[in-house]
Amino acid sequence: VAGVLACGLGSAAIARFELARLRDAFDTDMRIAHRLLSQRVVQHDAVLATLALLQPPAQADPAEQRLAALYSQILRVQRRDRGAQWQDPRQQAAEVVSRAVRRAALSQLDFSAGRYELVLAAEPASFALLMDLRAVVPWSEWPMQPASSLVRVALEQDGQSFVLQPGRTGGWGWRFDFDKHLASGSQPFNVVASRNVGPGELPWLPMLAWSLAVIGLLAGLRAWQGQRQARQRAEELVRLGQVSRLNALGELAAGMAHELNQPLTAVLANTQAAGRLLADQPPDLATAREAMAQAAQQARRASDVVGRLRRVIEPADAGSTARPVVLQDAVKNALYLLEPELAKRQVARVLHAPAEALAALAEPVALEQILHNLLMNALQALEQVPPAERQLALTLSTAGGRAQVEVADSGPGIAPEHLPRLFEPFFTTREKGLGLGLSLCESLALGMGGRLDASANAPRGAVFRLSLPKAPA
Amino acid sequence: MSGTLSPVVHLVDDDAAVRSSLALLIGTVGLRVQPWGEPQAFLDGFDRQTIGVIVLDVRMPGMSGLALLEALVAQGVDQPVVMLTGHGTVET
Prior knowledge:
The complex is a heterodimer of chains A (473) and B (92). Chain A is 49% helix and 21% strand. Chain A has ten helices and 15 strands. Chain A has helices at 2-54, 61-70, 89-101, 133-136, 204-279, 285-313, 327-337, 339-344, 364-382, 437-447; strands spanning 74-80, 105-110, 115-120, 126-132, 151-157, 160-165, 174-181, 190-197, 323-326, 348-352, 359-362, 391-399, 402-409, 451-456, 462-469. In chain A, helix 5 (204-279) packs antiparallel against helix 6 and helix 7 crosses helix 9. Chain A is rod-shaped. Chain B has three helices and four strands; from the N terminus they run E-H-E-H-E-H-E. Chain B is globular. In chain B, 27% of the residues are buried. With 92 residues, chain B is of the alpha/beta class. Chain B has helices at 16-28, 39-45, 65-74; strands at residues 8-12, 32-36, 52-57, 81-84. The interface between A and B is medium-sized, with 24 and 15 residues.
């Protein structure tokens, strides 16, 4: 809905802007046209005034006729000498008017033929000019192309109309109008112009472009939102996966507890019963012996449960699949996987590594798991100190012919009394911890012929050192 | 001591070793023991009139100890019930 609205409003604004521009152009053109026409008709007054003042002699006919050569719009010059009569009574009437208003007067207005006459009363002779309306217009300076212009321009006077340019009228659209009298007392013709802007003249291309841009933007926005949601969903799935793995572990632990508890209960009950039977007077030796045999059998059963469990969870011999692994790559990969976690906790990290590739003999998946667990441990330790003090240092080196990875953090460190038990299964200092992470890491390291140990980091924190056999060069 | 009026311990556990060793242990202190391997068989067959106590294993196939307890309560059995579990806590 917002998209449709944006498209509509934007397009309307573009159309409005274009209409305003066309309106401005129309107004400017018409102001120029009006000024040009006004200047021309004022010239006619000046010509007549000059004739009246100079009173060229009647026999010097060429002087008057030269005017027609000079001004193309003047078709004919006529004079009425003192005592003479105009040929046309209309000229006579115009002269009376002219004498009264003391300026030139219109006579023989014939816009259908494009003619009008201008009469100025004077002494001794009065003069009349027959004008060609079409030639009055200074076409060379005209601001529009008369043949192709869309503007209709006409001169109107006394209900008569002379079309200067037809333009294009009618049809659906917006209409601009201009209506102003020429700035002349003698020839106050009305300049009437109109311009019709049809739908075809609207700036469809920019409007379309705008709409497409809006649609594109919206589509982009939606795609971005979709992507973000997908990412959130994926993160949620990962989190759920971790939770369900924990649940599975909890289930496994509960099952194990029951499996072991049964034989242990039986052992306890049998030995207690045997104790009582032996304490009886006289002791019931046969039943007590049987109870003890039962106890031994149940103890073996418990041992079998543990053995079965070990066979299930013990990893296959990792050493058999060991191959050269470049430690720089393995470390960078592990860091890359934890990049969001590191960024979230604002952990500053450094990687010290030799320039040449350092290759160790290792099982790649096991190595990845060890590094991941060590980094996760470091991150959890760093959570307990302020962000500004969170430092993680990884160091790759060669020591005693073995390849070595050190993961050092600036966290709270390991209490000395915890150090010896660090790699024990189910030993943990974290409330929600299973205590299996480091023990698993050590088992994996040992399986690859490596070793894992921990010590205090200077000035504080913990450092875990994984050493692996070096790959033959 | 073990007359018809002495109390009976009903022992319900699916594990034969646990059942027999507990029966032996309870027997050594002079109580009568009635072991049951099947929760349903116990529900159908135990004598509700005698004085006694019921010992239930929480974790049994078919019907758990908690479900059996609910069935007993629903039937109006007022004998004391002791639950056996390997876990520190039981989610109810």
